[in-house]
UniProtKB/TrEMBL annotation:
Lineage, highest ranks first: Eukaryota, Viridiplantae, Streptophyta, Embryophyta, Tracheophyta
SMART domains, alphabetized: S_TKc
Domain Protein kinase: 12-266
Protein name (Swiss-Prot/TrEMBL): non-specific serine/threonine protein kinase
Annotated catalysed reactions: L-seryl-[protein] + ATP = O-phospho-L-seryl-[protein] + ADP + H(+); L-threonyl-[protein] + ATP = O-phospho-L-threonyl-[protein] + ADP + H(+)
């Protein structure tokens, strides 16, 4: 592969094969410019189209854009040709957690560390409306520092996948780790199903074997349905209690992630200074957050060139193999400090009587107080720093009714933010306003945008166009 041409080979030196499946191969690679080790998954488009799995690939790409967390495998970039899709991802040198467990049960402190990181990452996924649905040691990788990383979001589901009953209905996952309600095929809560799988993972880490196993699949499903398992004698009492609540066959009474994190066994060894296990602690109310502009800027996620390309509609690489979704998200740029953007958003939320909370650096959540047609409306707002005092803000519905979200976006957010917005990404999608002054302001914003791109962003635009042309024309990739 190393002698092949194309933009992939211009940027990466490919090495050994790390693994392969029916539709994809994963290679070790090195970034030629930075020397960084990466893993590149090469997906055969023809094969996945033949068996109807393109939607699964699209979903995996969409999900991995949403979930950026220290304990989730990071997707650096995606490239595509007519025949191949390339995922350039974080390389996890430690391999699968399964390989560790295969050698025997782990020490309690080691198992707890991995479990804490797993729960933190799953909690973050759920906060972004993502349910993994296939959590198992084979899909949990370890980096150079023995930190856990969730991988393989191919079977994951988004909040939008729920039917009108508010439940998911696709039966998927690995039999030994799947929740009883998923087996019953009557609809299930994705979050509760993930918690069950996390419980099975915890049992495996502490015991070195599965809680539910039988050569007869139907017999194993019967045991899962009744939660028939026995903890070994070496399990500490606190872990036994936690497992009995996680492996509760009734999803309604099954323990929540918040209560797992508050349990005695889980919290043992956690210090307030720990970054690996307390990355995304419980949300803090925006009203109590009072930091200066420099502190806010330091917390904002920084965008590299690829991030800017993928977030900006004109250069959205995902459109090569993904249908655009404009109804549930919007983006705008602002030349105001992050603290001013947050303050504006907070005031609008207060006016709308929505609860505002801060989930992580640069990520805000607004939740309604009343149930709508499809549950409580929830809106995520993520702020990215492009350069100093120039931010890109992504507004996305994470739960609830799309029409209700659209109404709030067009009638409250757009008008309420107009004095800090430099430009909305998709102004052509915005309904015509009756206010002539606002129309004039939008036209001026558009002119300013064009002038800014010509005078200040020309090198970046050239780089983006070059990359776009490479992706469309390049057919020599392996």
């Amino acid at each position: 592969m190393a002698n092949k041409g194309g933009i992939l080979m211009e940027r990466y030196e490919l090495g050994r094969l790390l693994g392969q499946g029916t539709f994809a191969k994963v290679y070790y690679a090195r970034n030629i410019k930075t020397g960084q080790s990466v893993a590149i998954k090469v997906v055969d488009k023809e094969k996945i189209l033949r068996v109807g799995l393109m939607d699964q690939i699209k979903r995996e790409i969409s999900v991995m854009k949403l979930v950026r967390h220290p304990n989730i495998v990071h997707l650096y970039e995606v490239m595509a040709t007519k025949t191949k899709i390339y995922f350039v991802m974080e390389y996890c040198k430690g391999g699968e957690l399964f390989n560790k467990v295969a050698m025997g049960r782990l020490k309690e402190d080691v198992a707890r560390k991995y479990f804490q990181q797993l729960i933190n990452a799953v909690d973050f996924c759920h906060s972004r409306g993502v349910y993994h649905r296939d959590l198992k040691p084979e899909n949990l990788l370890l980096d150079d520092n023995e930190n856990l990383k969730i991988s393989d979001f191919g079977l994951s589901a988004l909040v939008e996948s729920k039917r009108q009953d508010g439940l998911l209905h696709t039966t998927c996952g690995t039999p030994a780790y799947v929740a009883p309600e998923v087996i019953n095929r009557k609809g299930y809560d994705g979050a509760k199903a993930d918690i069950w799988s996390c419980g099975v993972v915890l049992f495996v880490l502490l015991a070195g074997y599965l809680p539910f196993q039988n050569s007869n699949l139907m017999e194993m499903y019967r045991k899962i349905g009744r939660a028939e398992f026995k903890c070994p004698s070496w399990f500490p009492p606190e872990a036994r209690r936690l497992l009995s609540r996680m492996l509760d066959p009734n999803p309604i009474t099954r323990i929540s992630l918040a209560k797992i994190r508050g349990s005695t066994w889980f919290r043992k060894g956690i210090s307030t200074s720990s970054k690996s296990t307390a990355v995304d602690e419980v949300s803090t109310d925006l009203a109590s957050t009072n930091t200066d502009d420099k502190q806010e800027a330091a917390q904002m996620p920084k965008l590299n060139a690829f991030d800017i390309i993928t977030l900006y509609a004109k250069f959205d690489l995902s459109k090569l193999f993904e249908e655009p979704c404009l109804k549930k998200e919007a983006k705008f740029t602002s030349r105001k400090p992050a603290s001013m953007i947050i303050s504006k958003l907070e005031n609008i939320a207060k006016h709308l009587k929505m609860k505002a909370s801060k989930k992580d650096a640069g990520l805000l959540r607004f939740e309604g107080t009343k149930e709508g047609k499809k549950g409580t409306l929830s809106i995520d707002v993520e702020i990215f720093e492009v350069v100093e005092d120039f931010h890109l803000v992504e507004v996305k519905k994470s739960n609830g009714d799309t029409l209700e979200y659209q109404q709030i976006l067009n009638e409250c957010l757009r008008p309420g933010l107009q004095d800090i917005v430099w430009t909305w990404q998709d102004d052509q999608q915005q309904p015509q306003q009756s206010d002539d002054q606002f129309d004039e302001q939008q036209r001026n914003n558009q002119l300013q945008q064009e002038q800014h791109l010509d005078n200040q962003q020309q090198p970046l635009e050239q780089q983006q166009l070059l990359l776009q042309n490479h992706l469309i024309q390049q057919e020599q990739l392996p």
